[in-house]
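seq:
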Amino acid sequence: MEKLTKKVMHECRDKLIQTKAEILNRVREAKANLHREDTKGGDEGDQTVRALAEAEFLNMNERLRKRLVEIEMALTRIDNGSYGICEETEELIEPERLRAIPWTRLSIEGAEIRESMKRRYATR
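struct:
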């Protein structure tokens, strides 16, 4: 089985680290903005707006947390030498795909297999 070139691996590692830093900064800024607003008083409309803003923050935070986990797992795979291998097909993930989505665990073919399995079992 072929291996990824060091150049591709280095590009992906850099992008993973950069994306991780961006996500952490987004969470930090969103948290600061959420706590900056007045949390006391106001009419029902103000309280509703604050509750919606908090719910939006929590949803965003959960999505970003999941992405951070994927990034950490990808960095671990780089360190242990299993980066770039599809979990479904055990074939090399396309370098272009890794450059676009460096935390991916599936090749295009592997993603299609997983999606068809989800559809097959979701209809039953």
